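LAB NOTEBOOK - FOLDING QUEUE
OPERATOR: T.R.
BATCH SIZE: 2
PURPOSE: Compare the predicted structure-token outputs for two unrelated chains run back to back under identical settings.
PRIORITY: normal
REVIEWER: second-year student, initials M.K.

ITEM 1
FIELD SEQUENCE / FIELD STRUCTURE:
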Amino acid sequence: MIAVNPLDSASVLAAFGALGVLVVIFAESGLLVVGFFLPGDTLLFPAGVLCAGSAQQPPRLALWQVLLCAAVGAVAGGQVGYLIGRHGGRAVLARTSSHRVRAAAGRAEGLLARYGHGKALVIGRFVPLLRSVLHPVAGALGVPARAFTIWQTVGGLLWSQALVLAGFTLGASVPHIDDYLLPLVGLVVVLSLLPLLPEARRARRARQERRDSSD
């Protein structure tokens, strides 16, 4: 029996292939606290690499299957997350003991307030941690169902397909690129965290201004 580590993209892909992509992306996009700790970017990009003809390590995945599973997982997961938020999402967030989950929920609420439903739902898909709580928060805040469905679908498809195709393009153009999957995954993680920097700077400035005003 193969031991599978759901936090390890290589383990998930080796055990379940494209189906593993569907399940993990669904959970990360919709199951709130459970999905918060699962790989997203770091699963889609290596899956794309393994679809390329230059990949030497098993499994050799079919591109169309990975693209389809990634799309279904992202869109269906987003809808489930929204329904969780509509039916008790605030209570679930209040009960969680994870400071990271509560902080991400606060950032998600701020993103929706700052950019509006459409832009926030698209941008949020590309931000790790945030995307796992964004959809339940949108449901809890009463974002209209039609607007949510349209924009989370746009964001989910852009995010999932772009990462898989980026991995596939790199895998097809660089021989034996799968030998360097680990550093590549690290690079993907760093790049995916970049959207958080402006928000972190704004939060730091706001804290400094509050301290200055209280002096």
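ITEM 2
FIELD SEQUENCE / FIELD STRUCTURE:
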Amino acid sequence: MNLKIVSYLAPNWFWFYKAVAAYLERVLKTETQIISGECDPLLDLMRSQDEFDLAFMCGLPFIRYDQMVPNQLQPVVAPVMGFPRYQNRPIYFSDAIINAASNIITFADLKGKIWCYNDPGSNSGYNLLYYHLLQKGYNFDFIGKAIQSGSHQRSIRWIVEGKADFAAIDSTVLEQELRDFPELSQDLRVVDSIGPNPMPPIVAKVNLGAEFIARIQSALLNPDAELLAAMETAGVQRFAAVQSRDYDAIAQIHYLVMGNG
């Protein structure tokens, strides 16, 4: 069997996803092939349903796909990050970042400013920012201008370069980017954090069969020394088992945002 894996998440962790794939190959005694998705995961999933077995993906496209094509994908595990803010749970935050030299002090000071986002299918970069506006009693015209960057990493660079005033970034992506490029820390400041939110899962196609999916889950819950080393480098403390209902909160937020758009 050739286990086909795709990642729809930020590329600065693709090395880690490759380590997970290599581990599954060792443990399951099966070949693995991993690629990086090239477009919006929801569109890609609808177009190429039979072209992958496992996927690393954001919770928002997962729940949207499950609404359109129910019971085809099953969340298996999600990473639990090691920093105290993650409370030993499979959660993350959406960090609203600004240029460190900005005179912006609070979230309210972002009114009328330029917002850049990675893509409209992103929970951390798009959905949660709009939800945060609603929770604070603002309308969508709070934002002066919205521009799409195409990736979290590009959004981060646009803030540093002054092309935009603020962006909402997956906290795990931001932490990895600061590990890879520590000089960025002097140019960025977090003005607000949104969350916690359910961590992006590893999902499996249900047609792999319940027994094989259980083997995948068991393997990831019990990593070997090589995978543990990769997890430590990525700041991942462990993997936790997750289920579809763990992502219900994302669905509720998404439909609230859509209803007020």
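REVIEWER COMMENT (ITEM 2): The chain is about 40% helix and 25% strand.
FOLLOW-UP: none requested
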